[in-house]
Amino acid sequence: MSIFEHRLLFVVGKGGVGKSAVSAALGLAAKRLNKTVLLVEVGDADSLGQIFDQGTFPETPGKIQSNLWGVRINPKSVLKEYIKLHVNIPFIASRIVKSKVFDYIIAATPGLKETKYLGQIWRWEQGKTLDKSPKFDLIIVDAPATGHGVSLLILPQTLINMLGVGPIVEQTRVVHKLLIDPVKTGLTLVTLPEELPVNESLEFKKIALDKIHMPVQTTLINCVYPKDFSDADREAIQNKLDEVDCKDHLKKLKPFFELAQSTISRRQLQQTYIDRMYDNQGTKEKIIEFPFVFSHRLSIRDIEPLVNILLMHHEK
Amino acid sequence: MIDKINTAKIVACCGSGGVGKTTLSATLGLKAALSGKKTIVLTIDPAKRLADALGLKSMQFQEQKVPNSCFQQIGIQPKGELYAMMLDTRHVFDRVVTTYSSSPEMAKNILKNRYYQFLSTSLAGTHEYMAMEKLYELYEKKTYDLIVLDTPPSRRALDFLDAPERLNDLFGRHFFWNLLKPYFKAGKLGYRMIYFVASPVLRSISKIFGIQALNDLADFFYLADDSFIDGFRNRSKAIKSVLSGPQTVFIAITSPMRAPMLEASFFYDKLKENNMPFGGFIINRVHKELPKLQETDRDAIHACVSSDELAQKITQNYHRFERLGASCKQLIDNLRTVTDPSISIHQIPFFESDVHAFEHLFRLQSYLK
Are B331 and A296 in contact (CB under 8 A)? Predict the structure, then answer.
């Protein structure tokens, strides 16, 4: 199935691999397929907002472009909302929310915050929110870096085991069911063709399959250098470099040939890591390569090529 | 930057994930060792290849000396010594429990407690706290001239600074402790239920969160007596004071990309706000600015290369890196405009290969002057 047929996409990966750029590209591509999209940032992050020149996303879904909405989940306000929904007596509810015990329990109960993030996402999926946001066709979550991403996804199970019974457990079960539904929810892994990100990605894929029961469905290898030069080109460039060294009047061309040679060798090195990703490809896993963006500023314009690649894969 | 590091006892390397913090921490450690200091690099989960490069066994969690053979390989005789240590959160946390428990019995029970097991591995801030704990222990021992700390990866570089505070909050909340103390000390489950039912707020909380969770929590605090909690709390305070003192210098490590650069300047602002010593920025993997490709160059390339197609590929390739170099420069210039002119900004160029050998670290340190 196409990545855009899911209702919910979790974008995970090591820090610095470009999760936010990929999330933004996914959102823009889905929007072009006439879907109403919600981009979700978790916690204190604001890199998605930066790509859209929005600063930080608001705490309730805000419109960024037509059919494209953005939100930042703040665990504490989500929890407050939750308490108010579940405690019938308003006086007691507001006392709980204001009490220090409440702060304490949030800080001390592992997984509570994360489960609340997920619960909020579930409510958007169900269209069951009190805010004025539309019904979203696709919700894209720019998840925290892999280590934390694993804990975000594994926590519903942990929390169910730890709390045992009660309304939180009941809600968590519902959320958990959504997460492990491979049709509704797609796990999207972003990586770079480099040693550390590839190692971490392969580890994550194993954990996702065995422990979280959410196999990675799409892997996006980001920042792949273009393969412009053929083997014959490589030889020709090497010959030119030898020639340039002996001829004085050609010396000034050396940097251009050297840069071409360096691109070739970088691409070769990347290929070994790309191959490792394909060697470990899961049975239903789709691998998509994203080209290197030759600008570190990363604006919407810069990620346009990524959007096109996603749309191309969708049509296949 | 280096003069600030020379007078410091602790160098804390901070930055968002994926910028090369571990590698550069090792590089700073190497630099200090070369200049004659007995230096240790504290790191969390280093790349296996980096551990190999330093001649270390990757699964050992004690102080290890970087063997002389590493230095011999590159034909250098260091004036000082270089050590490295890898941290394992659970391992350090368990030791803290053993240290502050008033009896071996108590330590054993805490280590077995279900809540403790969650706490030590999944609570936000535990990794950061444990890095601090180890740092403090080494600092107190005074066996090293310099400790380089590779802070845990986090999206917000500043997170780790608040970690001791956060855990301190957790244990230091007297009101909570006092509120629930009768409940904890009641011991038997029956008593606890009575105490809970008596308070409407607690009753609602226990309904929502489930009584099991509160019991685990209560058991943990029941096991951990006052001296344990106090020990932990005092330790957090001491760590915080060492980190904010003049013996510590903070270095912001970043890559020349928009998000980590903003993060680094945010970090700098925060340190300034809190009057904490800042050592400077290290910008890793910078693509240098390229001279503009001239018409005459283009013609010359076409004349030199027989195939027009190849000539075009070569100029296109050059243009791409021209753009990349320009974007790096712009980001670095932006950083300059928002920082004090006295702050040093070091740039480390992008290398074609991954840094995974000792000689690469040696090459990197030459860029830090």
Answer: yes
Mutate to test the interface with A, among B21, B253, B258, B261 (most CBs of A within 10 A): B258
pLDDT, residue B55, reads 77
Q: What is the C-alpha to C-alpha distance for residues A244 and A235, in angstroms, rounded to an integer? A: 14
Render pLDDT for A69-112 as a digit per residue (tens, 0 to 9): 999 987 777 777 777 777 777 877 787 777 666 766 666 665 66
State whether A296 and B328 contact (CB < 8 Å). yes
Residue B144 pLDDT grade (very low, low, confident, very high; cuts 50, 70, 90): very high
Q: Which of residues 78-107 of B touch A (CB under 8 A)?
A: none
Helices vs strands, H then E, count in chain A: 12, 8
Chains A, B: CB contacts within 8 A come to 188
Domain definitions of chain A by residue range: 3-223+284-315
User: For residue B191, what pLDDT is reported?
Assistant: 46
3-state SS of chain B is: CHHHHHCCCEEEEECECCCCHHHHHHHHHHHHHHCCCEEEEEEECCCHHHHHHCCCCCCCCCCEECCHHHHHHCCCCCCCEEEEEEECHHHHHHHHHHHHCCCHHHHHHHHHCHHHHHHHHHCCCHHHHHHHHHHHHHHHHCCCCEEEEECCCECCCCHHHHHHHHHHHHHHCHHHHHHHHHHHHHCCHHHHHHHHHHCHHHHHHHHHHCHHHHHHHHHHHHHCCHHHHHHHHHHHHHHHHHHHCCCEEEEEEECCCHHHHHHHHHHHHHHHHCCCCEEEEEEEEECCCCCCCCHHHHHHHHHHCCCHHHHHHHHHHHHHHHHHHHHHHHHHHHHHHHCCCCCCEEEEECCCCCCCCHHHHHHHHCCCC
Distance to chain A for B226, nearest Cα, Å: 18
Interchain CB distance below 8 Å, B153 and A229: no
Q: Which of A186-200, B108-122, B181-195 has the lowest mean pLDDT?
A: B181-195
Instruction: List B residues 134-163 in contact with A (Cβ-Cβ < 8 A).
Output: 153-156
CATH superfamily, domain A3-223+284-315, is P-loop containing nucleotide triphosphate hydrolases (3.40.50.300)
> Rounded CA gap, A207 and B274, in Å?
40
Spell out which residues of chain A touch residue B305, defining contact as CB-CB under 8 Å. Answer: 236, 240
pLDDT of residue B216: 61
Single-letter amino acid code for the residue at B266: F
What pLDDT, in 10s, does the model give residues B239-281? 878 888 889 999 999 999 888 898 899 889 888 888 888 999 9
Tell me which chain A residue has its CA closest to the CA of residue B207.
Answer: A166
Position B84 scores a pLDDT of 92
Across the beta sheet with A218-224, the strand order is A62-65, A68-73, A37-42, A138-142, A8-12, A185-191, A218-224, A286-291
Chain B residues touching residue A14 (CB < 8 angstroms): 17-18
Higher pLDDT, residue A10 or B181? A10
B5-59, pLDDT tens digit by residue?
A: 889 999 999 888 788 888 899 999 999 999 999 999 988 766 666 777 787 776 6
- What value does the mean pLDDT take over residues A7-22? 90
- Rounded Cα gap, residues B74 and B212, in angstroms: 59
CB contact under 8 A, A109 and B323: no
Residue A311, min C-alpha distance to chain B (Å): 24
- CA A5 to chain B, closest CA, distance in angstroms equals 30
B173, pLDDT greater than 60: no
